[in-house]
Specification:
Strand content: 35-45%
Shape: globular
Distance between the termini: 32 Å
Number of helices: 2
Helix content: under 10%
CATH architecture of one domain: Single Sheet
Largest sheet: 11 strands, parallel
CATH topology of one domain: S-adenosyl-L-methionine-dependent methyltransferases
Protein backbone atom coordinates (compact mmCIF):
# COMPACT_ATOMS: atom_id res chain seq x y z
CA UNK A 1 0.00 0.00 0.00
CA UNK A 2 1.30 3.45 -0.86
CA UNK A 3 1.80 5.80 2.06
CA UNK A 4 -0.57 8.57 1.09
CA UNK A 5 1.17 11.65 -0.18
CA UNK A 6 4.61 10.16 -0.85
CA UNK A 7 3.75 8.34 -4.08
CA UNK A 8 6.78 8.73 -6.41
CA UNK A 9 6.01 11.11 -9.25
CA UNK A 10 2.82 12.13 -7.51
CA UNK A 11 0.90 15.37 -7.62
CA UNK A 12 2.56 16.49 -4.38
CA UNK A 13 6.11 16.12 -5.60
CA UNK A 14 5.14 18.01 -8.73
CA UNK A 15 3.66 20.79 -6.61
CA UNK A 16 6.79 20.90 -4.49
CA UNK A 17 8.82 21.32 -7.64
CA UNK A 18 6.43 24.10 -8.74
CA UNK A 19 7.20 23.21 -12.33
CA UNK A 20 4.87 21.09 -14.43
CA UNK A 21 2.38 20.38 -11.61
CA UNK A 22 1.40 17.35 -13.67
CA UNK A 23 -0.67 19.59 -15.89
CA UNK A 24 -2.05 21.77 -13.11
CA UNK A 25 0.14 24.61 -14.32
CA UNK A 26 -2.60 25.75 -16.67
CA UNK A 27 -4.58 26.62 -13.55
CA UNK A 28 -1.70 28.90 -12.59
CA UNK A 29 -1.72 31.08 -15.68
CA UNK A 30 -0.36 34.60 -15.37
CA UNK A 31 -2.74 36.78 -13.42
CA UNK A 32 -2.92 40.20 -11.91
CA UNK A 33 -3.95 40.67 -8.30
CA UNK A 34 -6.22 43.62 -7.59
CA UNK A 35 -6.20 44.75 -3.95
CA UNK A 36 -9.47 46.10 -2.54
CA UNK A 37 -9.25 47.89 0.80
CA UNK A 38 -12.01 49.98 2.34
CA UNK A 39 -9.41 51.67 4.54
CA UNK A 40 -7.27 52.66 1.52
CA UNK A 41 -4.04 51.42 3.09
CA UNK A 42 -0.80 51.30 1.08
CA UNK A 43 -0.98 49.04 -1.97
CA UNK A 44 -4.72 49.56 -2.49
CA UNK A 45 -6.07 49.54 -6.05
CA UNK A 46 -9.75 50.15 -5.21
CA UNK A 47 -11.74 50.86 -2.06
CA UNK A 48 -14.79 48.76 -3.12
CA UNK A 49 -15.43 45.54 -4.98
CA UNK A 50 -17.44 46.60 -8.10
CA UNK A 51 -14.73 48.82 -9.65
CA UNK A 52 -12.14 46.10 -9.06
CA UNK A 53 -14.38 43.60 -10.84
CA UNK A 54 -14.86 46.04 -13.73
CA UNK A 55 -11.07 46.39 -14.12
CA UNK A 56 -10.30 42.68 -13.83
CA UNK A 57 -9.80 40.32 -16.76
CA UNK A 58 -10.29 36.55 -16.95
CA UNK A 59 -7.75 34.80 -14.74
CA UNK A 60 -7.25 37.78 -12.39
CA UNK A 61 -7.39 37.59 -8.61
CA UNK A 62 -9.31 40.09 -6.50
CA UNK A 63 -8.03 40.21 -2.93
CA UNK A 64 -10.37 41.77 -0.36
CA UNK A 65 -8.49 43.11 2.62
CA UNK A 66 -9.92 42.74 6.08
CA UNK A 67 -9.32 44.52 9.36
CA UNK A 68 -8.02 43.23 12.67
CA UNK A 69 -10.49 45.40 14.60
CA UNK A 70 -13.80 45.21 12.70
CA UNK A 71 -15.57 43.64 9.75
CA UNK A 72 -14.95 45.12 6.34
CA UNK A 73 -18.06 45.71 4.24
CA UNK A 74 -17.90 45.70 0.44
CA UNK A 75 -20.63 46.11 -2.15
CA UNK A 76 -22.00 43.13 -4.07
CA UNK A 77 -21.97 42.82 -7.87
CA UNK A 78 -22.67 40.32 -10.63
CA UNK A 79 -19.56 38.30 -11.51
CA UNK A 80 -19.51 37.50 -15.23
CA UNK A 81 -15.75 37.01 -15.60
CA UNK A 82 -13.51 34.06 -14.76
CA UNK A 83 -11.92 35.63 -11.69
CA UNK A 84 -10.95 34.44 -8.22
CA UNK A 85 -12.00 36.34 -5.10
CA UNK A 86 -10.52 35.76 -1.66
CA UNK A 87 -10.02 37.64 1.55
CA UNK A 88 -6.60 38.05 3.11
CA UNK A 89 -7.71 35.72 5.94
CA UNK A 90 -6.93 38.11 8.79
CA UNK A 91 -10.61 38.04 9.61
CA UNK A 92 -13.89 37.68 7.80
CA UNK A 93 -14.80 39.94 4.89
CA UNK A 94 -18.50 40.67 4.38
CA UNK A 95 -20.10 41.45 1.04
CA UNK A 96 -23.54 43.00 1.38
CA UNK A 97 -26.13 43.53 -1.30
CA UNK A 98 -26.20 47.20 -2.32
CA UNK A 99 -29.26 49.48 -2.20
CA UNK A 100 -31.87 48.54 -4.79
CA UNK A 101 -31.89 44.82 -4.00
CA UNK A 102 -29.10 43.68 -6.34
CA UNK A 103 -27.84 40.35 -5.05
CA UNK A 104 -24.35 38.95 -5.17
CA UNK A 105 -24.36 36.72 -8.25
CA UNK A 106 -22.24 34.69 -10.67
CA UNK A 107 -23.59 34.31 -14.20
CA UNK A 108 -22.68 33.32 -17.71
CA UNK A 109 -19.26 31.78 -17.02
CA UNK A 110 -18.35 29.94 -20.24
CA UNK A 111 -17.14 26.37 -20.58
CA UNK A 112 -13.48 25.92 -19.71
CA UNK A 113 -13.47 28.92 -17.36
CA UNK A 114 -13.92 29.08 -13.58
CA UNK A 115 -14.91 31.42 -10.78
CA UNK A 116 -13.46 30.79 -7.32
CA UNK A 117 -14.69 32.54 -4.15
CA UNK A 118 -13.05 31.63 -0.84
CA UNK A 119 -13.14 32.95 2.72
CA UNK A 120 -15.56 35.75 1.80
CA UNK A 121 -18.82 36.02 3.70
CA UNK A 122 -21.70 36.51 1.26
CA UNK A 123 -24.86 37.79 2.94
CA UNK A 124 -28.52 37.73 1.97
CA UNK A 125 -28.58 35.73 -1.24
CA UNK A 126 -26.05 34.37 -3.72
CA UNK A 127 -27.32 33.47 -7.20
CA UNK A 128 -25.39 31.26 -9.63
CA UNK A 129 -27.04 31.31 -13.05
CA UNK A 130 -26.33 29.84 -16.49
CA UNK A 131 -22.68 28.89 -15.92
CA UNK A 132 -21.16 26.34 -18.32
CA UNK A 133 -17.81 26.57 -16.52
CA UNK A 134 -16.99 25.69 -12.91
CA UNK A 135 -17.96 27.71 -9.86
CA UNK A 136 -16.03 26.88 -6.66
CA UNK A 137 -17.32 28.30 -3.37
CA UNK A 138 -15.27 27.68 -0.21
CA UNK A 139 -16.19 29.12 3.22
CA UNK A 140 -18.62 31.77 1.96
CA UNK A 141 -21.56 31.67 4.40
CA UNK A 142 -22.05 31.63 8.15
CA UNK A 143 -25.45 32.45 9.74
CA UNK A 144 -23.72 33.46 12.99
CA UNK A 145 -22.95 36.75 11.27
CA UNK A 146 -25.75 37.08 8.70
CA UNK A 147 -28.39 34.91 7.10
CA UNK A 148 -27.69 33.82 3.54
CA UNK A 149 -29.13 31.39 1.05
CA UNK A 150 -28.08 30.26 -2.41
CA UNK A 151 -29.95 29.73 -5.69
CA UNK A 152 -28.28 27.76 -8.50
CA UNK A 153 -29.90 27.62 -11.94
CA UNK A 154 -28.85 25.97 -15.20
CA UNK A 155 -25.21 25.54 -14.16
CA UNK A 156 -23.00 22.57 -14.99
CA UNK A 157 -20.56 22.42 -12.08
CA UNK A 158 -20.94 24.16 -8.70
CA UNK A 159 -19.01 22.93 -5.65
CA UNK A 160 -19.55 24.31 -2.14
CA UNK A 161 -17.47 23.57 0.96
CA UNK A 162 -17.51 24.64 4.63
CA UNK A 163 -20.47 27.00 4.23
CA UNK A 164 -23.58 27.27 6.42
CA UNK A 165 -26.76 28.58 4.81
CA UNK A 166 -30.07 29.53 6.37
CA UNK A 167 -33.06 30.37 4.20
CA UNK A 168 -34.39 33.51 5.77
CA UNK A 169 -34.93 36.20 3.15
CA UNK A 170 -35.78 39.85 3.53
CA UNK A 171 -39.42 39.40 2.51
CA UNK A 172 -40.09 35.78 3.43
CA UNK A 173 -38.63 32.45 4.37
CA UNK A 174 -36.76 30.53 1.65
CA UNK A 175 -34.84 27.29 1.18
CA UNK A 176 -31.21 27.45 2.23
CA UNK A 177 -30.37 25.95 -1.18
CA UNK A 178 -32.47 25.87 -4.33
CA UNK A 179 -31.12 24.13 -7.44
CA UNK A 180 -32.69 24.00 -10.89
CA UNK A 181 -31.23 21.84 -13.67
CA UNK A 182 -27.72 22.06 -12.21
CA UNK A 183 -24.91 19.78 -11.02
CA UNK A 184 -24.07 20.71 -7.43
CA UNK A 185 -21.80 19.15 -4.82
CA UNK A 186 -21.63 20.16 -1.13
CA UNK A 187 -19.06 19.09 1.47
CA UNK A 188 -19.12 19.84 5.21
CA UNK A 189 -22.04 22.28 5.02
CA UNK A 190 -24.99 23.03 7.30
CA UNK A 191 -28.31 24.02 5.74
CA UNK A 192 -31.54 25.08 7.43
CA UNK A 193 -34.79 26.12 5.81
CA UNK A 194 -36.31 29.47 6.69
CA UNK A 195 -38.76 29.38 9.64
CA UNK A 196 -42.40 30.38 9.67
CA UNK A 197 -42.77 33.88 11.13
CA UNK A 198 -46.43 34.67 10.61
CA UNK A 199 -49.58 33.35 8.94
CA UNK A 200 -48.42 34.95 5.68
CA UNK A 201 -44.71 34.13 5.90
CA UNK A 202 -44.48 30.35 5.92
CA UNK A 203 -41.40 28.27 6.47
CA UNK A 204 -39.37 26.45 3.81
CA UNK A 205 -37.48 23.25 3.17
CA UNK A 206 -33.71 23.39 3.61
CA UNK A 207 -32.98 22.09 0.08
CA UNK A 208 -35.32 22.30 -2.90
CA UNK A 209 -33.93 20.71 -6.08
CA UNK A 210 -35.38 20.17 -9.53
CA UNK A 211 -33.53 18.16 -12.17
CA UNK A 212 -29.75 17.84 -12.38
CA UNK A 213 -27.58 16.13 -9.76
CA UNK A 214 -26.84 16.84 -6.11
CA UNK A 215 -24.02 15.33 -4.04
CA UNK A 216 -23.92 15.85 -0.27
CA UNK A 217 -20.99 14.69 1.85
CA UNK A 218 -20.93 15.23 5.61
CA UNK A 219 -23.75 17.79 5.63
CA UNK A 220 -26.41 18.56 8.24
CA UNK A 221 -29.75 19.50 6.71
CA UNK A 222 -32.83 20.67 8.62
CA UNK A 223 -36.16 21.93 7.39
CA UNK A 224 -37.67 25.19 8.62
CA UNK A 225 -39.87 25.19 11.71
CA UNK A 226 -41.88 27.57 13.85
CA UNK A 227 -40.34 30.94 14.68
CA UNK A 228 -43.17 33.10 15.96
CA UNK A 229 -46.66 34.35 15.18
CA UNK A 230 -47.83 31.09 13.61
CA UNK A 231 -48.98 27.73 15.03
CA UNK A 232 -46.06 25.68 16.26
CA UNK A 233 -47.46 22.64 14.46
CA UNK A 234 -46.08 23.81 11.12
CA UNK A 235 -42.74 22.48 9.93
CA UNK A 236 -41.07 21.51 6.66
CA UNK A 237 -38.92 18.71 5.22
CA UNK A 238 -35.15 18.88 5.10
CA UNK A 239 -35.09 18.09 1.38
CA UNK A 240 -37.66 18.15 -1.40
CA UNK A 241 -36.66 16.95 -4.88
CA UNK A 242 -38.19 16.53 -8.30
CA UNK A 243 -36.43 14.51 -10.97
CA UNK A 244 -33.00 14.92 -9.35
CA UNK A 245 -30.23 12.34 -8.93
CA UNK A 246 -29.04 12.70 -5.31
CA UNK A 247 -26.11 11.03 -3.57
CA UNK A 248 -25.70 11.38 0.20
CA UNK A 249 -22.77 10.18 2.31
CA UNK A 250 -21.30 11.13 5.70
CA UNK A 251 -18.22 10.75 7.83
CA UNK A 252 -19.67 12.05 11.12
CA UNK A 253 -22.51 10.52 13.12
CA UNK A 254 -24.04 13.97 13.67
CA UNK A 255 -24.73 14.49 9.97
CA UNK A 256 -28.45 14.05 9.34
CA UNK A 257 -31.57 15.04 7.45
CA UNK A 258 -34.15 16.38 9.89
CA UNK A 259 -37.66 17.68 9.40
CA UNK A 260 -38.17 21.03 11.08
CA UNK A 261 -40.13 21.23 14.31
CA UNK A 262 -41.67 18.19 15.94
CA UNK A 263 -45.31 17.88 14.88
CA UNK A 264 -46.31 14.60 13.16
CA UNK A 265 -46.86 14.57 9.44
CA UNK A 266 -43.62 15.77 7.84
CA UNK A 267 -40.94 13.59 6.30
CA UNK A 268 -37.26 14.41 6.41
CA UNK A 269 -36.96 13.75 2.66
CA UNK A 270 -39.75 14.04 0.10
CA UNK A 271 -39.15 13.09 -3.53
CA UNK A 272 -40.94 13.16 -6.85
CA UNK A 273 -39.15 10.95 -9.35
CA UNK A 274 -35.41 10.88 -9.79
CA UNK A 275 -32.89 8.73 -7.94
CA UNK A 276 -31.59 8.85 -4.36
CA UNK A 277 -28.48 6.92 -3.29
CA UNK A 278 -28.34 7.07 0.50
CA UNK A 279 -25.50 5.93 2.72
CA UNK A 280 -27.03 3.73 5.48
CA UNK A 281 -25.12 5.76 8.09
CA UNK A 282 -27.08 8.90 7.23
CA UNK A 283 -29.65 9.66 9.92
CA UNK A 284 -33.19 10.53 8.83
CA UNK A 285 -35.33 12.28 11.44
CA UNK A 286 -38.93 12.57 10.34
CA UNK A 287 -41.16 14.69 12.53
CA UNK A 288 -42.39 13.08 15.74
CA UNK A 289 -43.42 9.42 15.45
CA UNK A 290 -43.34 8.99 11.69
CA UNK A 291 -41.15 6.11 10.51
CA UNK A 292 -37.84 7.47 9.28
CA UNK A 293 -37.76 6.92 5.54
CA UNK A 294 -37.37 8.57 2.15
CA UNK A 295 -40.88 9.25 0.90
CA UNK A 296 -42.17 9.80 -2.61
CA UNK A 297 -41.49 8.21 -5.99
CA UNK A 298 -37.70 8.40 -6.36
CA UNK A 299 -35.77 5.20 -6.89
CA UNK A 300 -34.00 4.75 -3.54
CA UNK A 301 -30.79 2.75 -3.12
CA UNK A 302 -29.29 2.27 0.34
CA UNK A 303 -25.60 1.47 0.10
CA UNK A 304 -22.27 2.52 1.56
CA UNK A 305 -20.85 5.38 -0.50
CA UNK A 306 -17.22 6.55 -0.36
CA UNK A 307 -16.81 10.08 0.94
CA UNK A 308 -14.11 12.74 0.94
CA UNK A 309 -13.64 15.88 3.05
CA UNK A 310 -10.77 18.28 2.35
CA UNK A 311 -9.46 20.76 4.91
CA UNK A 312 -8.53 24.38 4.42
CA UNK A 313 -5.68 25.06 2.03
CA UNK A 314 -3.07 27.80 2.39
CA UNK A 315 0.43 27.99 0.89
CA UNK A 316 2.93 26.41 3.25
CA UNK A 317 0.27 24.52 5.19
CA UNK A 318 -0.67 20.87 5.44
CA UNK A 319 -4.09 20.10 3.95
CA UNK A 320 -5.93 17.22 5.60
CA UNK A 321 -7.95 14.90 3.37
CA UNK A 322 -10.34 12.47 5.08
CA UNK A 323 -11.15 9.37 3.02
CA UNK A 324 -14.13 7.25 4.06
CA UNK A 325 -15.52 3.97 2.74
CA UNK A 326 -16.50 0.57 4.09
CA UNK A 327 -13.85 -1.57 5.76
CA UNK A 328 -11.65 -3.75 3.58
CA UNK A 329 -12.67 -1.95 0.40
CA UNK A 330 -10.05 -1.29 -2.25
CA UNK A 331 -9.88 2.44 -2.92
CA UNK A 332 -8.06 5.10 -4.87
CA UNK A 333 -8.03 8.83 -4.16
CA UNK A 334 -7.59 11.11 -7.17
CA UNK A 335 -6.58 14.77 -7.26
CA UNK A 336 -6.98 17.31 -10.07
CA UNK A 337 -8.61 20.56 -11.05
CA UNK A 338 -12.44 20.44 -10.90
CA UNK A 339 -14.44 20.23 -14.09
CA UNK A 340 -18.13 19.76 -15.01
CA UNK A 341 -19.02 16.16 -14.09
CA UNK A 342 -19.03 13.41 -16.69
CA UNK A 343 -21.38 10.45 -16.31
CA UNK A 344 -19.58 7.11 -15.77
CA UNK A 345 -20.77 3.59 -14.78
CA UNK A 346 -19.52 4.39 -11.23
CA UNK A 347 -21.10 7.82 -10.81
CA UNK A 348 -20.45 11.45 -11.85
CA UNK A 349 -16.71 12.14 -12.33
CA UNK A 350 -15.85 15.76 -11.44
CA UNK A 351 -12.09 15.83 -12.09
CA UNK A 352 -10.27 17.18 -15.15
CA UNK A 353 -8.50 14.19 -16.79
CA UNK A 354 -5.79 16.52 -18.16
CA UNK A 355 -4.66 17.38 -14.63
CA UNK A 356 -5.41 14.06 -12.95
CA UNK A 357 -3.00 12.33 -10.58
CA UNK A 358 -3.21 9.60 -7.96
CA UNK A 359 -3.10 10.86 -4.39
CA UNK A 360 -3.47 7.61 -2.46
CA UNK A 361 -4.40 3.98 -3.09
CA UNK A 362 -4.83 0.94 -0.87
CA UNK A 363 -7.23 -1.13 1.22
CA UNK A 364 -9.41 0.69 3.75
CA UNK A 365 -8.76 -0.31 7.37
CA UNK A 366 -11.32 -1.49 9.93
CA UNK A 367 -12.20 2.07 11.06
CA UNK A 368 -13.51 2.87 7.55
CA UNK A 369 -11.47 6.06 7.45
CA UNK A 370 -8.01 7.22 6.48
CA UNK A 371 -6.37 10.63 6.77
CA UNK A 372 -3.96 11.78 4.08
CA UNK A 373 -1.91 14.91 4.69
CA UNK A 374 -1.06 17.08 1.71
CA UNK A 375 1.88 19.47 2.32
CA UNK A 376 1.84 22.61 0.18
CA UNK A 377 4.90 24.73 -0.58
CA UNK A 378 4.93 28.41 0.36
CA UNK A 379 4.63 29.50 -3.25
CA UNK A 380 2.37 32.50 -3.98
CA UNK A 381 1.84 30.98 -7.45
CA UNK A 382 -0.50 28.48 -5.81
CA UNK A 383 -2.93 31.16 -4.57
CA UNK A 384 -6.52 30.67 -5.82
CA UNK A 385 -5.74 27.21 -7.29
CA UNK A 386 -8.74 24.89 -6.71
CA UNK A 387 -7.75 21.45 -5.39
CA UNK A 388 -10.37 18.78 -6.13
CA UNK A 389 -10.21 15.30 -4.59
CA UNK A 390 -12.49 12.40 -5.50
CA UNK A 391 -12.45 8.79 -4.37
CA UNK A 392 -13.39 5.50 -6.00
CA UNK A 393 -13.89 2.44 -3.80
CA UNK A 394 -15.12 -1.10 -4.25
CA UNK A 395 -15.85 -4.31 -2.42
CA UNK A 396 -18.17 -5.83 -5.02
CA UNK A 397 -18.54 -2.99 -7.54
CA UNK A 398 -16.84 0.43 -7.87
CA UNK A 399 -18.57 3.59 -6.57
CA UNK A 400 -17.35 7.19 -6.93
CA UNK A 401 -17.63 9.73 -4.13
CA UNK A 402 -18.65 13.30 -4.66
CA UNK A 403 -15.79 15.78 -5.07
CA UNK A 404 -14.30 17.79 -2.23
CA UNK A 405 -12.81 21.09 -3.39
CA UNK A 406 -10.60 23.59 -1.57
CA UNK A 407 -9.31 26.91 -2.85
CA UNK A 408 -5.71 27.70 -1.89
CA UNK A 409 -5.89 31.13 -0.33
Amino acid sequence: MFSGCMIPGSWLLAVAACASLLGLSRGLEAQRTWVVDGLNRPGTDFTDFPPALAAASDGDHIRLRSSTTAFMFYTAANINKAVSITSDATSRVVILRPPGGVFFSVSGIPAGKSVRIANVLCTWQLVVDSCAGTVVLDAIADPIYAYSNIVIRNSLAVTIARSDFKGSGASGSEPALRTVNSNVSLTACNLEGGPARSSSILGAVAIDCTGGTLSLSDCNVRGGGYSGGFPWTMNWPALSSSGTTIMVTIKASLAAFMAGGGFPGVRAVETSGGVMIMDPNVTLWDSSLLPDTVSGTAQVFIRRIPGVTTGKATPGSVVTVDLMCEANAAYGALIALPTPPVSTPWGPFWLDPNTLSLLDVGIMGPLEKKIVQVPLPSSPALLTLPIAVQMIASTSFPVLSGPSVSVIR
